[in-house]
Write a sequence for this structure.
């Protein structure tokens, strides 16, 4: 219903990896460049940490697209790293890359993987890159196995580049594995969106979905409430935006008011497990100027 009410061709807030809906803040663009360089240059281990819904998977997908644009990179992904033991992890890595996995023991599997990685790097420009999402699920034996794989190297680069993305528990787990944590070449901590970045993200997605009106569909107070209730987390922001637009459409309106956002929030799980308020330290100037900078100013800034 809300697509018709707001003149949209498609749902702009689906929780998918569609690259056309990916919005890149300045901080995210900087992180994507650094992560792409770290992995493509064989610098070893990169770690991405962020709260649930902070955009970790979206960032990994964007970096994968960048690396896959070059034949130099051989890319593999593991989306569920809850392996029972070291052998299962090694089998998973080999399967992700399409390497043979016939060894009967973990030691033999490591040797087999090492030979495959050396064969891959026979072309001096070829780099194997492994993406691991939901990294907080990795058990200590799996983390130790990854540490040993990072020992495989040429004179100027690692045979295997690895990026692990996960929730804050991942950072705690890595701190307990000092022989692995001191090998981290790049650590990215995804922060909540500022209010202006949240406005830009919503605008980008709405425009991509066909929204053509000059003004945003949210009343200023409703837009501010969306950001506050989302905690600055993109996934929750887009969920509340969709649900509040649905409520407005069901009431026969094509503008989202505060009551629509409140109704959307009232029926969400946030009432049971509240989302922490975003850190406002990095957007203090925006808040002190709120009365002078309406929502439309953020919308224009994003254009």
């Amino acid at each position: 219903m809300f697509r018709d009410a707001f003149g949209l061709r498609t749902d702009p807030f689906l929780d998918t990896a569609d690259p056309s809906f990916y919005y890149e803040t300045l901080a995210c663009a900087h992180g994507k460049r650094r992560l792409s360089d770290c992995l493509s240059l064989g610098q070893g281990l990169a770690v991405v940490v962020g709260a649930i819904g902070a955009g970790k998977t979206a960032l990994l997908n964007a970096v994968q697209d960048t690396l896959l644009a070059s034949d130099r990179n051989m890319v593999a992904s593991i989306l569920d790293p809850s392996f029972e033991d070291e052998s299962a992890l090694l089998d998973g890595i080999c399967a992700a890359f399409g390497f043979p996995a016939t060894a009967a023991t973990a030691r033999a599997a490591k040797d087999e993987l090492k030979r495959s990685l050396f064969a891959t790097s026979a072309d001096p420009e070829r780099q194997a890159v492994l993406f691991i999402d939901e990294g907080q699920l990795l058990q200590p034996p799996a983390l130790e196995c990854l540490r040993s794989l990072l020992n495989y190297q040429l004179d100027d680069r690692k045979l295997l580049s690895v990026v692990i993305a996960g929730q804050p528990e991942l950072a705690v787990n890595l701190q307990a594995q000092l022989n692995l944590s001191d090998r981290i070449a790049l650590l990215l901590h995804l922060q909540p969106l500022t209010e202006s970045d949240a406005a830009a993200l919503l605008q980008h997605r709405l425009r991509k979905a066909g929204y053509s009106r000059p003004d945003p569909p949210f009343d200023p107070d409703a837009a501010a409430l969306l950001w506050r209730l989302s905690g600055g987390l993109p996934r929750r922001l887009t969920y509340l935006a969709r649900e509040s637009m649905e409520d407005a459409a069901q009431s026969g309106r094509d503008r989202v008011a505060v009551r629509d956002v409140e109704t959307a929030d009232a029926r969400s799980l946030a009432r049971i497990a509240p989302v922490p308020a975003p850190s406002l330290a990095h957007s203090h100037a925006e808040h002190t100027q709120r009365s002078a900078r309406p929502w439309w100013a953020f919308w224009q800034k994003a254009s």
Notes: The beta strands are 45-49, 73-78, 127-132, 160-166, 184-189. The chain has two domains: 2-12+193-302, 26-189. DSSP finds 14 helices and five strands in the chain. The longest strand covers residues 160-166.
